[in-house]
Amino acid sequence: MNELKTINKDKLHQLFDKLIADGNDVIAPKRKSEKVFFGKIISSSDICYDYIQTAFSAKSSVFPKCEELFSYEKNDNEIKHLDPVFSDKTTIVFGSRPCDSASFDYLKVFFLKENPDFHFAKRYDSTLLISMTCNKSDEHCFCTSVGISPSDTKGSDVSLTDLENGEFLAEIISDKGKKFVADYSSFFENKGDISQKSNKNAKVDIKFDLDKLKTKIKGSFDWDTWDKQSLACLGCGACAFACPTCTCFDIQDEASPKSGSRIRIWDTCALSLFTLHASGHNPRENQAGRWRNRVLHKFEYTDTKFDMVSCVGCGRCIKTCPASMNIINQVISIMEA
Amino acid sequence: MCNCNNNMYIPYPMRIAKITDEAPSVKTFRLEFANPDDKDKFSFKAGQFGEYSVYGEGESTFCIASSPTRKDYIECTFRQAGRVTNALANCEEGDIIGFRGPYGNTFPIDQWKGKNIVFIAGGIGLPPIRCVIWNALDLRDNFNDITIVYGARKVEDLVYKHELAEWEARKDVNLLVTVDPGGETPDWKGKVGFVPAILKEAAPSAQNSVALVCGPPIMIKLSLPVLFELGFNEDSIFTTLENRMKCGIGKCGHCTVGPYYVCKDGPVLSYRELMALPQEY
Amino acid sequence: MDNIAKNINQLIADGSVDIFIGYVKGNDNRAKAAFFNISDKVDNAIFDASCTQNLAVYLHKHEIKSFAKIGIFANYSTLRAIIQLANENQIKAEKYIIQTMNKDSQIITFANLTEVESYVQANRPAPAAAMIQKLDSLSKMDRDERWEFWSKELASCIKCYACRSACPMCYCSQCTTDCNQPQWIGVPAHGQGNFEWHIMRAMHLAGRCVACGECQRVCPMEIPLGLLNARLNIDIATNFGETAGMTLGADYALSSYKVDDKEHFIR
Lengths: 337, 281, 267
Fold this sequence. Notes:
Helices cover 22% and strands 30% of the residues of chain B.
């Protein structure tokens, strides 16, 4: 049983303003024009609550679109490598949905299980996830099809539920969350009733049977469904970059020969350049193969490798696709094949 | 807390001790550790690879082409094909470049004691095999017959020409060097013909043998039926894959073939393992 | 919508087309590209205000090009892109059956590109007021303010290349940004690399952009990319009297010389 508290909206905002004043980064949903994005806020008044799902996931707080791997200084006979400098302050991510928070559980396994990734580890250690369960959903939500629910707390440090009366129910999930709430205990009230949560959370219909899919998808590699479903795919990286669990990156140098840095940048298997050999040979030579790779990676490959399906059902790839590609339709076409 | 304090992306600084021009646009670098501590910590096995970098230009992936039995240095052989390999080609002896590694799995050479080894390579496919050849030759007593079939398009494209001469002179190595028809020079004394045909002619025994194949896809494709005809099987044929790579440690996602990471689960695999993979290499 | 389906079915049945590109309902309230006779059911075909995607982008997609006879149900900007692609020798008119639906819901089958040309000239919509207004406010800014505006907007670019992928005029087999010898455009999605990328793209489209607005529509980060192209389109029209995708056989303003070309901008 998780420890329960409540916090009202004014206190929550005072807490964020204090955290900001103390030099911490607070990442929260902010409206740009039509869409809501996670972004660094300078005041609690920047926070947008009117969103079902942010356009992009919160992964950039632990895996930014560009980050320095190391910097270097070079003289004739000597080379000095320097680790990037990480802030000793906490990054508080507020408002991630349960699907997003669950993605952190996957990211943790992916980046840290074998060959632990220094940069991810540093960022993950200093990130605190205050998630918000879903009171609303839309037609593209399918978390329940991949074993996550709109009320889920996994991956979160603190999980809030909007009780729609000016108060949030706070479930304290992790040790990190416990320490945080203890440090800022004056903002929270020592009361809370978990039964208040159940009638607030959205219903998300199950769109496919995951176990059946896992069986069916094995051996689907050569099926023509990939060719048919991928004809509309334009081969950009919007889906992968919006995705909470897409982790591929490119490595590039930015520098003069004497000093500079090696950085990594988000990359995606949707681009033909991703697999192109220097010889000109491309092992994944058409868009169908690239689309297939992304879908199989989510539902088959990471399941084989980590015993984890790496799609969290957030629906972002569907919403962001310029060509209305739809991963649910692809999955259903595999189920029906 | 994750307690991860090891930034795996930082390379070892390496000094270029020697540059050999092997063939047009192909060079071999002998690299020595700039910091003696790094050298003491470092070890690798046959079949592994690394990320070689020119500061300011980026990293490129090649196998370690020298043998793990030669501990004072590592060597790599590369063809100029992109931004980084061109920058590498412009380096001079004494320059410092970066090296990360060793990465990937290894040829199971320890299990081959007492066996015959057949090496089959084409063009720039010899470097990964050369690592194993020298490893075997440096421990010659551990192995039975050693056969090397190596071919290139033209005479000038053959790499490690001095070593080919050295192997040719050895009585304990059966070397067959060939060039494609039309690729011979007037004074060419080796074979003329494609690698699979020369392999068939050499007909090494499959009894108590393993075969290592590395080269252009077409050479591999046509050599395999010859090997099967000679009696080699799925478990006695090995190759090494090359896919585009960036990180070398199973993170960046570039080299994947289905669920298989060439950089971490490979690059060395048996024919049986290769056949289990989707055709994405 | 029955008449659309009937029409497509007929073209498929009589062998006039191997594939017919049109629209079906997509995600949210957007239509999506459909590939009838291959992957979509003709009965689902639609053509309405939600059909905004520029389908001409598929005409240079490798998988589509391989079909011998291609039908396409084009919206207005797709028609303009088709003219421009023909002007740039990217498509052979004989290969296509081009259709659209006019304001009275009648299906029009174009006999040739000249008919397409007449149609796009006769039906050119007025420029969007919001776009004109934004361009106005941008041109009233001083250089520092404009720099500030674009720095802020382009900082959010993630280099997903959706703008390039959705653009009917971005058909280069190797994009400048993918070349690394030399590395013209910085790969990283940060300040300088993003500026280089978007300025390069806008310049390559100057006088070729058919103003479909796809780049802006598809940008996951809501960057108003259309402003760059709209500005350049106005400059090209003002200085050279040309508008991409409106005139069949038109030369490309920036690569052709005319004696009466203005030279006042050369200083």
